[in-house]
User: Fold these one by one.
Assistant:
Number 1:
Amino acid sequence: MNTSLFERARYLFITLSAVAVVFAIPTWAQDEDEDAAELGKIEVTGSRLNQTDVETAQPVTVISREQIELSGFATVAEVLQNTPYNSFGSFRETSGYANGQASVNEISLRGLGSNRTLVLLDGRRIASTGGSGGAAQNLNQIPSAIIDRIEILRDGASAVYGSDAIAGVVNIITRKDFDGMDISITSGSTEVGGGDYTRANITGGVSNSKGNIYYTFQHYDRRPQYYNEIPYASHASNYDYFSSFGYPGAAITGLGIIVDPRCPEANVGSSRDNGSNTNSTFPNSYYWAGPGLDTGLGRCGYDFAQDIMSIPRAKRNAFLMKSSYDLSPDVTMNTVVMFSQLEGDSRFAGTPITAPFPVIPSGSPNHPMIAYGYDCTPDGSGTGTAPATAGCGAATLLLRSVPNGYRDNTVTENITDVRVGFEGVADMMGGMEWELNVQTTVNDIDNQTINLVNKTLLQAGLDAGTVDPWGINSTLDEVAVQMLAFNHTGLYQADLKTTMGDLIVKFDVGELAGGAIGMVLGAEYSHSSFDQLNDPESNAFLIAGSAGGDNINAERARKSAFFEVGLPFTEQIRVAVAGRYDDYSTQGVGSNFSPSVNFEYRPTSWVLLRGTYGEGFRAPAFDELFGNRSESFPSGIDIVGCANGVTVCTSTQYRAFYGGNPDLGPEESEHYTLGAVLSPLPELTVQLNVWHTEFEGLITTSTLNREFEAEARGETNYVVRCTATDQCQEGTVNYVSLTSNNYKGVTMEGIDFDINYVMDTDNMGRFDMGVNAAKITKYIYQRFASDSVESNEGEMGLPDTRMTPYLTWGKGDWGVGLTGYHVSGQETDYFGTPYSVDDSMTFNLRVSYQLPWDASVSLGAINVTDEEPEQNSDWYGWEPFDFSLYDTRGRTVYITYEQSL
């Protein structure tokens, strides 16, 4: 526990209590005499107890349908990813990710990971994505047209919802009792180029005294955005950010590193470099030299940014139907059916052929040194300069399969969610409410990536002399045909199926001075199966440029029992106690009990003082236990390699492996909140909340820079360097292992502040203004117990403050909304070298008008001032910004037409 934060919280609580009592004295009698408006009992996110107040002990942020529309964002993902509580950003769909992840959008409350943020639909779990092994939910499956409001619980809730809810809960509440039909269409166009979209919705429903049925269909289509359409990221402006794997390429030989003479001689950064290569034979290839390379030689670098999609093409269709029917006066049947089909197309540059690197054997008639006039015949019988080693020795190629084409990835994700439930009342326990629910979710992913490279076939061709990549004895056209012989199409399939059932009963067990003691008892059973299948060559790790790996067939069952009791000691003081027992069938995970206790104190009608305490538990997900071993090339700064002079000292791409770990144990968390809600005027609401969360045994993957830092400090790390026997330059990075592991944990603390003021005027209309803000005051990430306890909030990629100010106006048929999105600047001193980015602030503007024929039209702009993301290429590398925090589309102008029928 952090003493300073605890002291601040204690003083805040005492001060607010004193203020509340002082103001309460003259109004207490008046409050008792006034007739308060009776609210129907509702269930608020964070508790299954029936409540009569919207504001309870748990800190919940509500985003209304009107606020969603005023934001101008076209998808649920965009709305949630721009909230202040998505602290450090979250995964956004982008090229370069396998297993269907290129079409996934997630939210990570408090920056603790999307696998610790539970997403619900009307209080029930939605399907997890198979590409993550069930670790997280893909927000793209939820059509925005169904939403009535979104409730964000900014606190752990494992005791209520289960182990996935340890960071917080996002509960999407759908529309109900809808009569009639609405049709709407939206078209948006970006300033930068790429990312233009169209969205169409059809929503309808009917209701009568016995029940209702509601349905919606949504279609969303977005064209891709390429990095070459983004002015500040269209190509790498410095050779340090180019790939060493180019075309026609380079080779490591007895001479050192030699470059194919055909590589365009436009040294990046030289006076001859105009920032683009106009060589049509070898587009995007550049000859460059750098530290650790033989003087005058270098490499044939490749500007892969010219080829890549930054935002994939997306096509989504979603259908949801809800119905409610009274079978009798005491029993109601509820059904929900949701289908979503998500299609995405992404593109990455031609395949870099990585370790084991292709090798041209000594004495080959296609040996690269022949291009430099050497006699590479085995017996020295040829013409040219005699080499030091007969046959010129083996030559390791640094090659990219550009002639084979781009690595185009196509993913189709089909999601089915079917729920059938019954609820009613029974003349038992003095009047008991009950629910019985059954739910099945299915997530199927089919992923195809073309133009990969079969390294075994390539090496066989090099050994036989049938592949001549340097064109020693072949024309360019002949080489292109030769390379097609080892082309490969990678296939990946994942199926995640979950069946759940639960029984919940609610009843009163007595009374206290403040009212009835409410009790909730429940039991839940869940069974999940996960199947992951790669094509045989990828499964055997024979393919370059892919995420091929393990085939998985696994299943897991979970049994849970839970309770919750509400204790109204007085009309002003209420306490709720909850607990949940989870028992997993997965070996090594076992069982756990998660308790929580919440309190609320209302000294007067306009003051609420509240607090929560809870513990959480999360079992490893399928992908964390058995995840696909994947190869990727993140950017980082190799501190040891820089110090030894074998690599550049700025951010560069390195080979890394990601994947699961079957030896993982569970993680456990502890959290508390303390805050106040003040409404001194009917028009004014102020909320202040402090919170603390810490994890032990945190399940996560490390990052490239964290491993480089650990190596530089002489600590345990997963950096694997090339040795004299490897097919790469000795001392350079071979790869870094970034698989899932149990780490020491994370400690976080912060403050949330919300203020809202509504002003109704007779002549000028209605104004609604306020701000939602979240500040991180502590972020300590420890891999091992011996690691530093230095707080890292505010460092690169870890903004300590996010705010959303807003102002809306409405009068008659007109409405205007202006919403801001602030991300604080970040700064890191990385082993004596400072890196930083400035504050970011963007605004969304929307103007709407109600037409006389039951229709409306809205015109708006996202990022109306066309701000660029904050950039630092020395830190982030070739992609000079944090894609999880910032949007690259610039100003997006859109128009929406909606017709009611």
Number 2:
Amino acid sequence: MERTNIVPERRFVTVLFGDIKGFTTLSEYLDPEDVEDIINEIFTLFRKIIEENGGYVDKFIGDAVMAVFGAPRMHEDDARRAVISAIEMQEVLKEINNKRNMNLFMRIGINTGNALWSSIAGEKPTVMGDAVNVAQRLESICEPGKIFVSEKVEQLAGKYFYFKDRGEVKVKGRSEALKVFEVLGEKTPFSEFLIRGRIKTPFLEREKEIEKLKEHLKESISEGNARFVLIKGEAGIGKSRLSYEFIEKAKKEFSQVKEFIVHSDPLRSGAFLPVIQILRMQLEVALKEHSYVIKEIEDLLSKTGKYSHTEISTFTKIIDELLYPRESGREFHDEARIFRERLSALKAVFEAIFSKDFGSYILVFDDFHRADVDTRKFIEYLTASPPEVPILFLIASREDLESMDNISIIELRPLSKLSLFQIVKTIFDVEQEDIHEEFVDFIINKTAGNPYYMEELLLYLKDRDLVQYNPLRISGEGIFVPETLQGILVEKVDTLPQDMKKVIKYAACIGKVFWKKVLEEVLEKETGNILTELELEGLIFREPHSAIEGDIEYAFKHELLRESTYSLLTRRERETIHRKIGEVLESRAKNESILFNAAYHYKHGREEEKASKLFEKAGDIAFDKGYFSFALNCYECAGRSPVLILKKAHTLENLSFYKEGEELLRQHIEFIREREDLYFQYKIRLASLLEKQAKFDEALEELEEACTSHRADIKSEALYKRAWILFKKAKYKESLEWAKSSLTIIEKELEVRTYEKELIRRKGSVYNLIASIYHRQGNYKEALEHYTNAKSLFEKINRKSSVA
């Protein structure tokens, strides 16, 4: 890349650091220009390997190379791509050693972690951070000719490679020892599900799909023709798992069923590669001589009685070239004709070799959305004219196959909440009654019912002790995106054009739910059709209703996707965007919910003072509406000032958490003794909480000092509270005296502040109490008069709960 100014991003990357040893010795007897030629040859080949595997050459430094996988574009298997590149680089170096009679060796270290992807002073983009340092340290302790990786790489790529645990190693510049693994070699490619090597969770909600597949297999066997089924769904929805479970059941219920599973791999180039893998397995090519295999193909084609000697010869020659590729030196002048002949040959051989055993077959093409163009064309060719053999083709793909005929579709849906309970029970070994429903809601919100996402997130939480038991619930806060899902989730975002990518990153900053006009105001430009395009990409969806009047509300498909997109933003970007969102939402806030949202963004934009004020304001509005749980949450977010402590205690009282409210006030009351007015207010609230616990005498003691306050509002409130407690103790005469004293003070205050809402509320409460006293004394006329006065006052300030 040239000098450029890119948008900095925080990225989850795999870093490869390699250093060639032996150049110093070469330089002693070779001309410097010859050494330069060798270095150029090696590094040119290294660049080709790295880039073909989806990596980015960060830099060449002397005789060392640094490569990055996961920036500027992430793949779901970046750790695997890095290890494959390392293996291929070691192989290339051996070939060059043999060719030039040299003795060069390479040490390679690979690590995965978070890093900053940025351009310094407009230079070529690079990654920075501890992930790079660890890769370099691994290289420095690696033995020549070997590849050392970190524990994180081993976890992410363990299903693709064999590793040897080399134990913990202390390295320079790090306080903690590194757990090191050596790469031994690559495992045989197989389906994504089976490579994982273990079934961790029960197979749920796919009974209807299994029955449909059984019906297709029955039809294929009874009619002797191939059937094609597309198993469609997003990454992690369970396509591979469904195929595996169906095969296990089919082998028990149907005689002579044989299965082949092939995996489309973008890192394994070659025309018709999955198809050729199936031919190799059915013909047992690895166990037979080349000439024997070719003779067997000729015989099988001949036995069908469908083809002439010329056709058999042509087909055999084509299959020979596909099974045993070699440099032919021929030039094809009519490539379209040659391709048609290959399709015909493959179909003919398919029919012939799958007819020889008189059995039935299930062929699984896993990850078909990654298949090479030739393989896709071949399957399309077969669907147009199905082979006359009992084969059930299962095509597992994230995409539609719109150009194909004669193909049934099974589209997998997310799992339900009930199934999630079963998965949680299995992973955490708990009973359903020991699982907090909020925990299940949290997982559903994060994963939208995707079984693989569910499983990985649950294991992530379990492995890191991020849960509490009895009942099972989340402990701690933060962004929970397992490393195993980072690539899958970000890969699609990375493929978006820059304008779309910017929009979705800003939307992720707003939250799982966001609004079109708010987003446009934050972006300071219109989004045009971008949101519609993001919706078509399956990343977001439009909500039927909006929390902000006159705006259109959207939501991310699931919270994990939002969090992964959000994680791309640098800390500075996040803070700037959050502040802007806070300003926009504050200007539009018409209710406590949007006000809370604005405060949240100010907080994450490091505008702590603004955030605290808005949280408190949202809490006050919610309290007045009787939304006490929400109000308590707002006050908790606002901070721990003495006034907020008082408001929290009042809210706890309204939620009937009397003991908790009392304890909260007692913890803080001594710290505000010098602030007399606030101290008295604490005392009044404490008395109210004690009264609710029927601790009447203690409550009266707490009121003693407050009843002597020089502030009219505090004194009237203390007198009223005293009257109320005496009423609860059935001391009606004393209660009436104190209530009237309180009323006198309030009426004097109202002469000055005629329409103050709080004073009117307190006067209405005192009237209510006096009415109740008269009621208990049997003075119904006075009681009715005071009840009527109270009702009138509450109606005046629209306090409906008190009116009732």
Number 3:
Amino acid sequence: MSVIVGPRCNRRVTCDSSALNDRSESSIAVNPLDAYNLVGSSKRFTNPSTYAFSLAAYATFDGGKSWIDSGPLPLLGGGAGCSDPSVAWDNAGNAYVAALPFGPGSATDATGPVIGIAMYKSSDGGRSWGLPTLIHSSGGDDKQWAAGDWNPTSPYFGRVYVVWDGGNLLFARTTNQGATWIGTGASAAGSSIAPNSFAPSICVARDGTIYVAWISGTTISFVKSADGGNSFSAPSVVASGVTPLDAAGLSAPNGFPELPGGVFRVETLPSIAVGTGHHLVVTWADYRDGVSRIYYRHSTNGGTSWAGAASGQKLLTGAVASGAGLHDFHPQLATTPAGEIGCSFYEFGPRPSGGGTTPPLIDVVLAVSTDNGATFPNRATVTDTPWDPTVDAPLSHGTPSTTFIGDYFGLTASKLGFFPLWTDTRTGVQELFTSRLAVNPTDVFIRDSSQDTGAVPSPGNHWEAPDLIVRRQPDGATTFANEDLLRDGVTDHYIYGRVKNVGSNTARAVRLSVVVGNYPSLIGLPGAEFRYPQDWYKADWDATLALRHLDLGETAPANLASGLQKILGPVVWPAAQIPDEATWHPCLLAEVRTDNDDSAGGVTACDIPADPDPCAYGAYFWGNNNVCQRNLTYAPVPLHLEKRIEFPFVIGSPWSRARFIEVIVDKGEALAETPMTLVVEPIDPERKLRPATAQTEYVLVDGGRVVIREGNRQVAEILGYPGTILRPGTAGDGLRDVEMGVGAAKIGNAWRLTHARAAVGLPVAPGEMRRVMLSFTTSNTLKAGTRPRLRIFQRNDRRITTGGVILELEVARTRHVREGEKDEAQGTRRSQGSRGSIDGRR
């Protein structure tokens, strides 16, 4: 059973089509109050050729599946930029970025004189940031690092600490959530706690002890504080006789060493982490072997003594060591709550390719220790493809001979695993990527259909949702069968999910989380398109989505052994939150959440993206094996009597970038001959496609291939020959589709569906939603006790089926009509599955 597995799904954090806005030198930290909320920060360039940049920040509220770019952080008065970000949290859920502001530079090097150390603060999980607070003013400040004490057992719970290099090792802390900053004792921020330091790293043990390590020449030293930063010990040696990269005789044309085969600058910056108790690990990049390798030292007693050789030992040896021609550098440490210690680093060098080798490329690697840092026998490659550091590389201080990919990159850890945040150029631009790597990973899934085995896309009839049920009483653990909703205002309902662990390790803390989509609102109608994670995670909702969704919470955590299945529940659905049937048609959005499940079922554990543009985050339920969707819409029909049915629903999604939506109606065998009418109306009547103005033509004079892009997404491809004419249909909006019907005829503003399977297509704007009404009269020949199903599917841009809405008729067994079924036109009642594709396959 593997402790870690890689590569896992690589997710893009930043999305810049401009090569000017390179991103590098990142830091990331997890909210101690919410493992799904992470904040990152990095340099964001505005002119890479003159080394002009400041800082930007990013936040996720769904465990790294989607990201918010908070934009450039505001500058200090008189500042031209900021550098060297380090992210930390306090115990109240406030995020901080420690920054190095600087003034204006020259025309060739935009980085001017350093102003000092500044702190940014966010109180909303990283969505927005306040103005910076200058906590120390000195032109010699550099290489700051921050850490928070969010250990409830610590007497200094909630403090945030910052250390930096100012010639000496300098220190500051806040005891009041950033309102003020002080040094040791009662001194001002910037107390000197040790002489002669460079690039300090800081961590905090569970009892509140602070540890700081730094490098000076060929020696790595450390100090510690047992009183919350009021005082520090005298410096002591961690490792001596090391070979830092700047003392290895490497080429350094502009003062910064460069690895063989590369032109980007590198440095040896130590990293320190603490496991359980006072087990300490310190790592650094070392060139003593004629190649850059990660070395480390380990202490079991808080630094009183250190194991192994005085100059340290290799982090990876034997089968997990890097190849002879590869360089390891930029190590970063992080610790999970369980005490596993991870070390991420860049691995640089040529890769085998077609009998030869590639140019030197970079992979991200993660090594993990499960014995408090004594050994690191577990290794995984994080990147699913290596990246080229020569692509779109800024010039270090504007000097053409030395480029910049960052002096470090970020790593954090939580109960969900490790989250590196690295620079990557696979898009042709220096961007940031991340990945989740769980410790002892597993794969728990919930079925979309009876044929589902956990792979994606889900096979079969997705509307089945066999593993998600609603009961009127809390008996789903023994009677796993879906019941109709009873909307009497007093009956609570109970939701259960059946999940299976197909991974090789025991699943930890498995929970079923349930959201009700289309919760009563102005457009509280069943939707044909939901996107995961945005519709499933409450913290991802904007004000509009919050009005249309109801979070019912999640079940208590339970472990699940490999190969077993388990019924989770119930999640209670209070009667007061189940409105009258005429009001609304709900959809249940369920997710199985597991602390160590880092797989969505696809290649390298990825889900299937809903959009080819990776910046349009999200997947449909059939593309992720952790989620399930069940629509709850029934209509009672009297026996041997006709009944008028009017079924409203919504198509489109605020997350979608689709330009054309088709509504496909499969009437089913019992209703195949039933005439039906479909009316599509805008939800926002003011939002209309702009009319065409003067016709424009593009004539290919040489012929060839034409690719049409929208942002970072390829939306069309045209093969032409000399004389080919392109005529955009709508000025300003590019090529436009027109309304179309297959098996349907347009009559006025309605479509008459003339075939057993009919489709209506229409152009939309990105993010646009439409209200749809399907109307028909049931035949008086429907068989007693049958449940005919009418399936409605949405397909975007003629190729991606997003989901669907199912209307199930309940034909009475006798001619007796229950009192609750006498209402004609509004007779839709409760619901069942919404997982469909056009032909039952994905």
Number 4:
Amino acid sequence: MNKINLSFFLRHFYRDLRAGNLTLVLLSLVIAISSISCISFLSDRVKQSLNKDIQASLGADRRISSDRPLNEEFIDSAEKLGLKSAKGVRFPSMVFYENTSKLVSLKAISSEYPLKGQLEIETFSGLEVNPKLSNDSVWIDSSLMNQLNVNLNDYIFVGNKKFKISGTVKYEPDRGINFVNFAPRVFISMKALEQTGLIQDGSRVTYRLWLSSENEEVLKKFDQLILTKLQPGQKIDTISNARPDLNEALSKANSFLSLIGMITILMSAVAIALASRQLANSQKDSVALMQALGCNYKTLRNISFFELSMVLAVGFFLGCFFGYLIQLILGWFLIEFSDINLPHLSLPSLWVFLQAFVIAVLLVITFSWPILHKTFKSNPFFTLRFEKAKLLNFRFFKNENVFYLIFLIFSMLLMLFVTTKNLILALIVGAGFILMAVIFFLICLLFFKVISFINISCRKTQFNKFQFVWLNFIRATKRRGLSISAQIVGLGLSISALSVSAFIQNDLVRAWENLLPDDAPNNFVINIQQDQKKEFVNFLSSYNIEDVTLYPMVKGRLIKKNDIEILPQNFELISTRRLLNREINLSYGIKIPSHNQIIDGDELNPDALEVSVEKGYAKNFDIQVGDYLGFDIAGEILTVKVTSIRNLKWESMEVNFFMFLSQAALIEKPQSAITAFYLNSEEKILNSEFSDFNKTNSYSQFKSDLLNKFSNLTIVDTDLIAKQVRRLISQSVFAVQFLFLFCLLSGCMVLWTSLSSSREERIREIAIYRSLGATKYQLALSQWFELCIVGFLTGFIATFMAQFLAIVIANYAFQLSMNFNFASLFLGGFTGAFFSLASGTLALKGVLSTPAIKILRET
């Protein structure tokens, strides 16, 4: 491209931009790119926040656990790569104080622990974060202080060694909620472990190695080195597998944010197509004149290509800029006006910009270029000879070849997939909107046929004072059939998109809030014996803790499926082998707990030998409804039939079991009970007969009273874990509601472009009517009537179809149940009428006030 051509192209682009011909195309592109880049930036920040929580829950970036002493090769590999490391050992043991002994979970740590997160220890000096533990000191849980009736600076025995209690554990970053961790914690140093003499041959010990690095690439290299060297009984915990509850919540949040991005992109695509059509019609005379003066096809194509390339470049950079700016505003708002704290986005991911650029290119080459390309392929003689009011008539379904239609569908699905990275969601949304576009097009044809029939019938009828308004609307459908069709399709898809996102947003937010309400269980109590149940429930009632469900718990190990022995060595995954190598907790009841959802099969028969299996567990072992499972329970074999597969919400903090059996199967087996309940740790608890009147009746005192009354019980506070999930939900809900504004902006752009495209033709019509004696009031009433009737019908039908699509998306993409709401149909109709009238009034502003003589002279 030489300097003369470049200068000419730039002048042509600047002229069209200043004239406003490219404004709507550019604005639609900026809104689409702003939406997807903002969502990506925000998702990165939420993911960084979540990763910090998960790193804290690991105590590092990586954690290796082993049932045998760790291979020095692991440590050597970490040192060569420059990783920070800490060592630890964990196992159950007994501690002694005077004549009292307690079973505890002993944890020996090196001085570097923890590498991530905070270990909070309460000492005589106050609360200390990540202090160093001396060889002659221990830190113990506050609950153990009450059970042993000891104080700081008292001495206890751990094995052969005497230790001084120098602090109590307030928070341990990687404690977790596994049952093995339910015993009170005691910390000693690694150097003191050998002096205790506790580790002998055959001891059940878990060895741990914590590793961290600020360089993610180094961590990935370490993963590649170690994964091939892990032996049975060894595993590596990472951010992705350490907290499945948080990762599942984040996955759903990202999916819905991506859904908003997809809907915004779809509406922007419609707006870009309509704006490009308007641009083509505004350029048709100048293009024909240039053709008549000798400008060839190649030059015209290059001009159009250059303009769209400039629009693409400007739209991409402005979209990314505004997307980054909006997520900064959203992050600031979250930090300033809520208890949500998002980390600063250090360096934006290259994927965000690549994703935005690919979507921008697909939007332009799919929805703008084919329309403009048709302009300079038209016959200049035809364009200059026929009346100027005749608009370019693009009949995609009639004249365009099959290749373009396939390309359009493929490009749209590719855009949706790049946006969400979820193939199922992309296919559902894409197929749903393609189907809706076809339905709206068919509705337009039917609508025009009905209008023609009404027009014939009304010729023989006497009309009231609205005769002109009605006849003008009927004539408008004939004169501007394509324009009104575009308006109906564009408005219909916009309202459908807004309705889909609104319906799913409401149900998703409601489901999230119900998933983890403020009173979600935050305390687990285990080892409740049969003869303690009644007294335990009474104890909780005295503290105003009601409606507590006690779940029986029986230890068992899965050994057979359909009379075939299940062997750990037959499975590749270490996690699957581990499930077979240890006993799992079985429970039973008359019916499956209400917070479980049966996805396949039927409810349990309490009098038969039946079992319901958790979905993930069933998938690991290929268990189907109708299979027979064999369990080893205290040396006895129990065979039961699988009658259902259940879906569990692990993040709900309720008591859940992999296996839930019928009452007849386990009622006679040795068992204890477990329960979960909510207790506000920040408020005083009402006075109880079990409490010492002179003591502060707080949450700590409640635990002390409980353990004094039932010394065999173990109580575990999961409030921190619940707060992590609740904080993620709060971030997601706020982001969903905030980013819904992008959908509204895109919808307004569609309405604006669909109405602006008929502005010139409307001005000419009004000029002719004014010259024939029509009043301004009649013309305004006619315009309002057209906008309202098209808006109401479109909104009504769009809401009807949107609910079906929303139900499909909710069921298959988010596992939510939705019901059809008939009342929303009329709300959608009136909303469509309102938006159509409001946008039409703004887009057609000045049409009625333009002098008729001026228009007629220019025509």
